[in-house]
Amino acid sequence: MSQFYQLLPLTLVAAYWIVIAGVSLRIVLKRRPFGVSLAWLLLIYIIPLFGVVVYLLFGELNIGRKRKQRVKEMTAPFKYWNERLHRQAQSDRRLGQHVRPLHELSLRRLGIPALLGNDLELIENSQTILERIINDIHQASDTIHMEFYIWHPGGLVDEVADALIEARQRGVTVRLLLDGAGSREFFNSRWPKKLEQQGVSIVKALGVNPLRMFLRRMDLRQHRKIVVIDQRIAYTGSMNLVDSRYFKQSAGVGEWIDIMVRLTGPSVCSLAALQSWDWEFETDERLLDEIALPQAESSREHRHAEDSVQVIPSGQGLPESIIQQVLLLSIYHAKHSITLTSPYFVPSEQLLDALRTAAQSGVEVNLIIPDKNDSFMVEWASRAFFTELLNAGVVIYRFSGGLLHTKSMLIDDDHCIIGTVNLDIRSLLLNSEVSLAIDDPDFCRELGQLLDRYLKQSNRIDAHQWQLRPMWKKLVEQFFYTFAPLL
Length: 487
Known about the structure:
This protein is about 45% helix and about 20% strand. The protein is an alpha/beta fold.
């Protein structure tokens, strides 16, 4: 018995080091960005057992066995559908020079072509956005598909729900796909039961189930915001289905400031196909066959016949790092100016280097972020990047008119990227997101005017004054910077 008690500690120590070594080796062999691997290794060695458990839960992109199998079965039909769309669109020869690289990248990695002849409208006020959506729902005659990260009841959002019930009573097919974590307020409210009683189909995407925590990664989120009505009208952008007057009023950051793009034209079909991908990913129910390909362009006289929209999805089941490639490609092709807005700024090493390189090569780089953030950790981690960016010539503005939630990049004032993607690791590598790469001078002019209004409500960070901040702040920033790749 004495030998047992002597061997037990040695056995436990050996098992401990085998586990630590095994997980460490697994992290290294994943060949991720150096900063990501280093952050995980630090967490494991600073808080050993806790770090190992956290890594096993959140360290790898595990979508679960059923979803993996589903993706294999979905890929071929969606690839064929996009090939037919590409052949019918025949837009390649008419794409602008700065759009073509993004088109080729998206076509080769995603199979999704850039499409011409869309009408776009930039809407910047949450109440106006909701009123426009309600009006379009009232006009719907066939289908309404809505997909959001957050549905927060209250204000005009409840009127959206009432409009959906009225549409369903007219015989319109209504489907809602909502993230399980982001929309928990909705799922805990009276609305799911009320909507389902009227025949509205509601699916909880990536529902959080502690019993399955070791079978799939629990913090993956369905972060897209898409509305498609009758396959004729679509909305996408940064705004969740929330009325900003009723959303997170106790957070102390002011009203959330968002934009949405309302579009009609061929790209609506691309967004509808993306929704059908997400629906099948969650339910195994195929809706792709219901989506009609857009009619071939009948005339080149359309007001936007030479302007393109590229739909770029990213996330679970799709090629890795695609949105980061899109952003990097756009930054490196900029000739004169880049203006970015993001509520959460914790960039990858590659994105940080691209912004610094652009500024150092003479491109005017402006970054607009909120002055107050609803995420304590992201707030401090963001500050850790300011010194490098300021030294490189990037101009940083802190928006004081609320929580600036708009996610956009305007390049050379003539093309832009708008969507759901934050400039942080989570959006770049983990969440399911969607972006629009838009080549439309009129639209970009409107976006530029909006960004100018943001700048008028912002304070520019002075590089010299920033260096004089207290030492304790620098230490806190450095601490969160170390773990920035995990945020």
